[in-house]
Write a structure and sequence with these properties.
The chain is mainly α. The chain is built from six helices and no strands. 82% of the residues lie in helices and 0% in strands. Helix 1 packs across helix 2 and helix 3 packs antiparallel against helix 4. The chain is globular. The N and C termini lie far apart (48 Å). The model has no long low-confidence stretch (mean pLDDT 90).
């Protein structure tokens, strides 16, 4: 019964449902990173309070920016390349990873730098883009293969958002890491 209600929400309000799912995963990933670092690992020189400002920044990325971009991207991709034949899936996976992913990381690092009030909005992007993209290939290529083979297009962004919980934990770690 609950599963049918969720399915109906995604069919009736696909963009809003996908935004809520993706945003929840994004903020949840940042929260889990902070919680583990501050409360479980008790890293030295770390304030024990949860950084609400960081959660707000991830909210903007997760509820507003990325799901809207991805919703229309997947909508176009699914219309342009219909089916689950190997050739179609390979095209979709490669296009997603090599055409859509790079701009998303530029937007991510630039928007975060803007919201953090940094002077050089591209500095972090320049230093972390390549390691982020390389790591994302290892994670996203198999995830997206599953996505395009088995996931219905009405919940594609929600699936990506759920997988993003794992990925954004990795991304949060890369973002915090000094390169």
């Amino acid at each position: 019964m609950a599963l049918n209600s969720v399915k109906n929400l995604f069919k009736k309000y696909p963009l809003a449902s996908n935004c809520v799912t993706y945003g929840s995963m994004c903020v949840g990933a940042e929260f889990s990173q902070q919680f583990i670092k501050k409360r479980i690992l008790k890293s030295p020189n770390t304030d024990e309070k949860i950084d609400i400002e960081a959660l707000k920044r991830y909210s903007v990325i997760g509820f507003v920016i990325n799901p809207n971009i991805l919703y229309f991207w997947y909508k176009w991709l699914d219309k342009a390349y219909v089916g689950t034949a190997t050739k179609i899936v390979v095209k979709k996976v490669l296009m997603d990873q090599f055409l859509m992913t790079p701009p998303l990381y530029v937007v991510f690092y630039t928007a975060m730098s803007l919201m953090e009030g940094k002077q050089d909005l591209l500095e972090e992007c320049r230093s972390k883009f390549i390691p982020t993209f390389q790591t994302s290939c290892l994670f996203w290529l198999p995830v997206q293969t599953i996505n395009f083979l088995f996931v219905p297009n009405t919940i594609r962004v929600a699936y990506v958002g759920t997988c993003s919980f794992v990925w954004i934990n990795i991304l949060c770690w890369i973002k915090r890491k000094e390169l």
